[in-house]
Specification:
It contains twelve helices and seven strands. It is of the alpha/beta class and about 270 residues long.
Length: about 270
């Protein structure tokens, strides 16, 4: 089920969904009092590229232009604004934003000329490059202190009431992560099928995915501090109400890690 970040967090709180994958925004919600925990971290680096029409070659050329974003205040726009500010632009005055431009839609808008630039996630950055659009920067490289972490987020109530279920889902996620990292051919086939792209595009997108993904489903406290620190970018002046450790529960992950290490040894006997 695809759902806008703010709606997904609300649905998790009401029990309409059991898990969401909006890690960064969910952790910031947890810092504001929502009883949520990140139980599995899929990525640990910003998976966004700033892409523009072919004639736009530099960031300065974005002044007066329109940039597509998912929706105002979401993680991609927060990171984009931080990048623009560091490039000497006023992100609130020098450019304008068009919301509702998730990667597939934004790519088509760029190709159709209705947008000047947009924030794209893999594999759409690769598709954009293949079609002649300008890749201005990888926001993960240009804004290294703006960590994102998509992964599995659930409620404290779910953890208490159904720990076995949480463990099974975390274990399956860890196995999938390992398989994606270790089995390149199958991973490329998955990318091609999931995004309905050619194997050639999928093969070019695969290194991007490896760079973004965590090696073991876990992120450290410093990266969580960076995620929570983005609250200041949204205008929040209140100090953090929780420590990084308070929004994480990697106990199920650590148990799954130990079990998966033991499996090969037991099979070899």
């Amino acid at each position: 089920m695809t759902m806008r970040t703010d709606l997904a967090i609300a649905a998790l709180g009401t029990g309409d969904v059991d898990y969401i994958t909006h890690g960064g925004a969910a952790l910031r919600a947890a810092a504001q009092g929502f009883p949520l925990k990140l139980v599995f971290a899929l990525d640990h680096k910003t998976p966004f590229w700033l892409v523009a029409r072919p004639q736009i070659k530099t960031v300065r050329q974005l002044i007066g232009k329109t940039i597509g974003v998912s929706f105002p205040g979401d993680t991609p726009q927060i990171i984009l604004k931080r990048f623009l500010r560091r490039q000497g632009l006023d992100p609130d005055r020098d450019v304008s934003y068009v919301a509702g431009q998730f990667s597939p839609t934004a790519l088509q808008s760029l190709l159709g000329g209705s947008l000047d630039a947009a924030v794209l996630a893999p594999p759409f950055n690769v598709i954009a490059s293949e079609k002649g659009l300008s890749l201005l920067t990888s926001l993960g490289q240009s804004v290294p202190d703006a960590t994102t972490s998509n992964g599995l987020v659930t409620t404290e109530q779910k953890i208490k009431s159904k720990p076995d279920e949480v463990k099974r889902i975390v274990r399956a996620s860890l196995k999938s992560l390992h398989a994606f990292r270790q089995q390149r051919t199958l991973a490329i086939e998955f990318l091609a099928s999931h995004f309905q792209i050619s194997p050639n595009i999928a093969a070019k997108a695969y290194p991007n995915a490896l760079e973004i993904l965590t090696p073991d489903g876990e992120i450290n406290a410093e990266k969580v501090r960076q995620i929570l620190g983005m609250m200041q970018d949204t205008g929040s002046k209140e100090p953090l109400k929780v420590s990084p450790a308070a929004v994480l529960d990697f106990s199920f992950l650590h148990e799954a890690q130990r079990e998966l290490v033991r499996v090969p040894a037991s099979k070899s006997r």
